[in-house]
Amino acid sequence: MSNQNLSYLYNPLEVDYIPNYILFNNSDSISTVFFKINTKSLLYIKNELTQKFEAKFCIQAELFDSYEMKVVLDSVYKDFSDDDNVNYNDFWGNFRIRAKFPENTLLKVTFRDINKHYDVDSYIDVLKSKRYNVQSFLLLNSDSFPMTENFIHDKQEFRLLCNDTAVNKLYVRYYNRSFPIAAPPFSTVSQKPFNFTADSVFSIPLKGGYTPLITLPDAGFYHFQVDTSLQQGFTLFRFDEDYPFVTNPLQMLYSLRYLTSKSEYDDMLVMKNKKQAVEKFWIERGGNADRAKELIRLYYNRVQEANRLFKSYLEGWKTDRGIIYIVYGPPNLVYRSENSENWVYGEDRNMLSINFTFYKVSNPFSENDYSLNRSPLYKDGWFMAVDNWRR
Prior knowledge:
Shape: globular
Oligomer: single chain
Structural class: alpha+beta
Low-confidence stretches: none
Mean pLDDT: 93
Helix content: 10-25%
Radius of gyration: 22 Å
């Protein structure tokens, strides 16, 4: 699977729809995969016998040691049909796999809309090398449905389910940190090591594995742990209220830093009317209001996609993959291994193509943290890409 092009995962124009998946380790030998499908993406066809409109789809899952292995450790196939949710938004389902402690494995899940003749593959890391990691917990909303994202808003109620019902307390480490945006790909400035000393620590009771309903009003991120002597746990993030969407001029201005000089950016920051500062920048780039609107739509759609795809312990647009995605766009080719991703802009094995390699970072707060292998060789190409935006 490391030889498969996975660029469609990062390009919404290449796929019709990708379901949301959440994995929960029930025990040392069993894991449950919950999935959510937007019913508006399914094709409902009238059943001549029942006279109802019906969607038919299936899930096929195969468990491998890693992206580089071909041997299937376990497999699942399930058919589904729906004639009730045609007027609703979501269809929820689940299936179980046999994944054993203490090995990390990889799950390939194929969703197939039978009526539409459409299928799409997704890849899920099954984490069982350590106890009480992120997949030892399940995030539930106030109606006890699994939540597909690990960020919440200030008044949102939720509860956590821990797979160890003998645990009666969770410790929560709260961090309120400000992180810099990603540096250009040619920069060799090293990042400062993260200070793991929490800004505050509190506890939440567990009963039968469940917490009571919780709200987290303060922005930052919250690391839930069973054992504070270990780093692993479950992390929840409180970003901007409308995250992952860009909804106000200040958010628009911050993410413009990738296209501006420092002095240009500082001048916009001190302007009282941030909306006017952003509009002025784009109208000057586009030459007229209509062209500026098109540039704005393209640029901030990429910012929002980066937020959705690449969030880790910081907003997706601030990450290494985020900066490349926003400035260069979705890559033409994506190859993934257990510990890295390789992005290609252009043709495979073409000397004129641009290649970026991202290495997975061991991070107790996120399994989605990747660091770019930076090089001075990217400098000319980077300024050319930024200049294309500015022209």
